[in-house]
Design a protein that fits this description.
Helix content: 10-25%
Strand content: 15-25%
Number of domains: 2
Strand order of the largest sheet: 1-2-3
Number of helices: 2
Largest sheet: 3 strands, antiparallel
Structural class: alpha+beta
Order of helices and strands: EEEEEEEHH
Radius of gyration: 17 Å
Oligomer: single chain
């Protein structure tokens, strides 16, 4: 989400974008969220072109984006917060949790 801020005459525009993962506000030029590290753009493994991280497929070739669990290797949807193999096979990996988010906010 892009939020435009009304500025005084002659002032520079301070548009921000909201992180879809933690809702943190970031400068429009940010490549990753300053709060949680979410990458706003990713490169497609198939065609190599950049696409918005909010997309679930490459905007150029249609390849599905996946997030791989570092613990078990399962291919999860990009918006997954926990490994999808959790229920069926017992993987308990959490990609992100609220406690970490609060810790990052306290550091700012």
């Amino acid at each position: 989400m892009v939020k435009m801020v009304k500025m005084a005459k002659g002032a520079r525009c301070a548009a921000t974008k909201e992180c879809p993962y933690c809702s943190g506000e970031n400068p429009m030029v940010a490549k990753e969220c300053q709060l949680c590290g979410f990458q706003f753009f990713r490169f497609c493994a198939k065609c190599g072109k950049p696409s918005s991280s909010s997309e679930h497929k490459c905007t150029f070739c249609g390849e599905d984006f996946k997030k791989f669990c570092p613990k078990c290797g399962f291919a999860n949807e990009m918006i997954a917060r926990t490994c999808g193999r959790e229920e069926a096979e017992g993987c308990d990996y959490v990609f992100w949790n609220g406690e970490e988010l609060e810790h990052h906010r306290d550091l700012k």
